[in-house]
Sequence to fold (141 residues):
Amino acid sequence: MATRSRQADPSTAQGRGPSRSTVASSATERPQPIPAVNEVRLVGRVSGAPEERVMPSGDVLVSLRLVVTRDVPRRSGPDIARVTVDTIDVACWSAATRRAAGRLQVGDHAEVAGALRRRFFRAEAGALSRYEVEAQKLTRR
Fold:
């Protein structure tokens, strides 16, 4: 069986870092960051009356739950998707979204545009967290 000898890379031999030419070229060629996107659009049915709460900070929050249908493809069988629902918490912090949420009733259809947020809070069980959609725009459909 033939063996090949490997030559050590002089820039990394004996624990040394990259050569100066490598450092210089990487310093001038910075990779462009990938833009992050946190946008959510939901259309669904209001499942409970919107609730208004005053936070310890004095801010007012109106929260509601939206039931949204979702197609789930079957793993076997014909190409027919089964329909399931997700219940999603929506937080309305701005005056405009709080007013719009206050006009909604159980069973109304609404469209929410916003961003996904993770909220941390304390409960009897200890520190908990929950994901919710922070509404930037809320309209009845």
The chain is about 10% helix and 50% strand. The mean pLDDT is 84.
